[in-house]
Write a structure and sequence with these properties.
The longest helix is centred in the C-terminal third of the chain and has 15 residues. Strands 1-2 form a two-stranded antiparallel ribbon. The chain is mainly alpha-helical and 174 residues long. The protein has eight helices and two strands.
Length: 174
């Protein structure tokens, strides 16, 4: 089995491969019966304008089960983790939870080429491709700048505004 090389020439570490395997088992990826419900319900066709098999849920499950070292593939970053496949899976595969954890693992191990990070704290937020689509969708909308901050930084910013509105730190409504 050929191992995927990172751009820096390194192969995935044993601890990363083990963590991915644990995550796969915890989210029951091994129970996939290849019924196709996940592919049928997936909104990626609407979002990207075409269906490409290697970006689909079933394809990702197959590749990670049979080639866990093939983790540097951009196709693994197309999924929006929307929960549709998880909801309709008759086998109980929690693909949404897996994808969220999987990407966090990749970023924490240096596989961040396809990841968008918070402009304030640097935390992983979403795939770059997803951010690009959201930017296009919100183009010209006054809320587009909110895309570049993680939920924690947004919360901190809004808490600061609330404290100012409350009169220098006093509780709102008192």
């Amino acid at each position: 089995m050929q191992q995927a090389l990172r751009k820096d020439g390194k192969t995935p570490t044993a601890d990363l491969r083990e963590a991915i395997q644990t995550l796969m088992e915890a989210n029951r990826l091994n129970l996939c019966v290849e019924c196709g419900k996940c592919s049928a319900i997936c909104p990626m066709v609407k979002l990207y304008g075409e269906y490409v098999h290697n970006r689909g849920t079933r394809s990702m499950v197959e590749r990670l089960c049979f080639d866990p070292d093939g983790i540097d593939d951009e196709a693994l970053w197309y999924c929006w983790a929307c929960t549709e496949c998880t909801f309709f899976c008759p086998s109980g595969v929690d693909f949404q939870n897996f994808m969220t954890g999987f990407r966090q693992l990749l970023v924490s191990h240096g596989y961040s080429e396809h990841a968008a990070s918070c402009k304030i704290c640097g935390a992983y937020m979403m795939p770059k491709r997803q951010l690009q689509i959201l930017e296009t969708t919100l183009n010209g909308n006054g809320n587009a700048e909110l895309l570049y901050e993680c939920p924690n930084c947004k919360k901190d910013k809004y808490l600061s505004v609330l404290h100012k509105l409350a009169g220098g730190g006093k509780a709102v409504g008192r």
